[in-house]
Design goal:
- By secondary structure, the protein is mainly beta.
- The protein has two helices and 18 strands.
- The protein has helices at residues 14-38, 199-202, and strands at 40-44, 58-63, 68-70, 77-80, 89-93, 100-107, 112-116, 119-122, 125-126, 128-131, 148-155, 158-165, 176-180, 185-189, 205-206, 210-222, 228-229, 236-237.
- A hairpin with a 2-residue loop joins β7 and β8.
- The N and C termini lie far apart (83 Å).
Length: 239
């Protein structure tokens, strides 16, 4: 008599069925979360605090390995090989409320920084300011031009475009007293100087709170034009 040695397997549990059907997707999501947390990510920019450098609707690529390696989903540093430089655009957790912000590094440890009537001074050197013509700006920057001007700020061998209120009397953040940036901290400002929740609102940012460096615009959506993509912003370098 023939004997069948095949044994029937007990019915799989619901959990086993879910894992069998979805394990590929679950592993993919896990890898993506780890990658975006520790290696690279893109962040939506919903506000105008970094105008004119970053437009509202830009999705910015952030290099999470620019300065160090961290345990995914934490601020715990495993290894460090660099520190932020002046004029780097970085992401960090706000010391005020923990929200993720993107600003420009203005003062590094040891720098003496002050702002008087929107003129920035670092280590005794005051920036030079050149007003830029509207025609040289991105078309989507025409809207705030009714009350702002764009300048090229030159300081310590670096250049960057900043936005200022046309009427200085409307600014309440155009000055702050001289401060020496302590070790382990950085002073951040937005390029939209009169409309940015930066050092003047949140204070200095600890080195440990800085999560990466923003270098490129992945893509950009125009919120005022039915969320259509801005073709000229695709993979645009940030300066």
């Amino acid at each position: 008599m023939h004997t069948d040695n095949h044994q029937l397997q007990p019915n799989a549990t619901p959990g086993q069925n879910i894992w069998r059907d979805w394990k590929g997707f679950i592993v993919f999501i896990f890898i993506m979360v780890m990658f975006r947390s520790a290696v690279a990510d893109w962040n939506q920019v919903p506000s105008g605090s970094m105008l004119p450098s970053i437009l509202i609707g830009d999705r910015v690529i952030v290099d999470k390995l620019a300065y160090d390696l961290r345990v995914p989903l934490t601020l715990t540093r495993i290894a460090q090989w660099d520190n932020p430089k002046r004029s780097d655009i970085v992401t960090f957790e706000s010391p005020k409320d923990g929200l993720l912000l993107i600003k420009r590094v203005i003062g590094i440890p040891g720098d003496i920084v002050s702002l008087k009537d929107n003129r920035l001074s670092i280590n005794g050197v005051t920036g030079q300011y050149e007003k830029l013509p509207r025609q040289s700006m991105h078309a989507d920057l025409q809207i705030p031009f009714s009350h702002t001007e764009v300048f090229l700020e030159k300081l310590l061998g670096q250049e960057r475009q900043i936005m200022l209120f046309r009427n200085p009397s409307k600014s309440t953040n155009s000055s702050f007293q001289s401060i020496t940036v302590p070790q382990g901290y950085y002073l951040m400002l937005g390029d939209n100087r009169d409309n940015s929740g930066d050092y003047r609102a949140i204070g200095l940012v600890a080195r440990s709170a800085i999560t990466g460096r923003a270098e490129t615009v992945a893509f950009s959506l125009n919120y005022d034009d039915n969320y259509l993509p801005r073709g000229d912003r695709f993979l645009a370098d940030l300066k």
